């Protein structure tokens, strides 16, 4: 089964496009997209330092452009993954009545990390640290999907 997965952060220029790029490289058969809860960067490519850090790992983000999360995304995706608790709350605030689409923290797929969120490298400048955590969570997500489970166990 092909899963449709949406990765969401604040501006859709660092964490969520990196997660999309990492995961589509890891599991190209999955349908992926990314979005931001805010609309400040709509139409822009991922932030230059994040593109460079991802490229150093062989992950190409050059074709991605920021877009804003909308309530209709609940109908388009099988799983929505937020990079932090505020993103998750902002996503849930737009949940249409009756929607059962699961929304989880991306770090739920990397329990071994002990992280409760992916820190925003736009503010921390730790692009490699964010990518390390994103890669760990992406591998955990892939493992769950291969095992036939969408949600973390």
TrEMBL record:
The active site is at residues 9, 15, 120. Keywords: Hydrolase, Protein phosphatase. The keyword Hydrolase applies. One of its GO terms (molecular function) is protein tyrosine phosphatase activity. Its EC number is 3.1.3.48. CDD domains: LMWPTP. InterPro entries: LMW_PTPase, Ptyr_pPase, Ptyr_pPase_sf, Tyr_phospatase_low_mol_wt. Residues 3-144 form the Phosphotyrosine protein phosphatase I domain. Gene3D superfamilies: 3.40.50.2300. Belongs to the low molecular weight phosphotyrosine protein phosphatase family. This is protein-tyrosine-phosphatase.
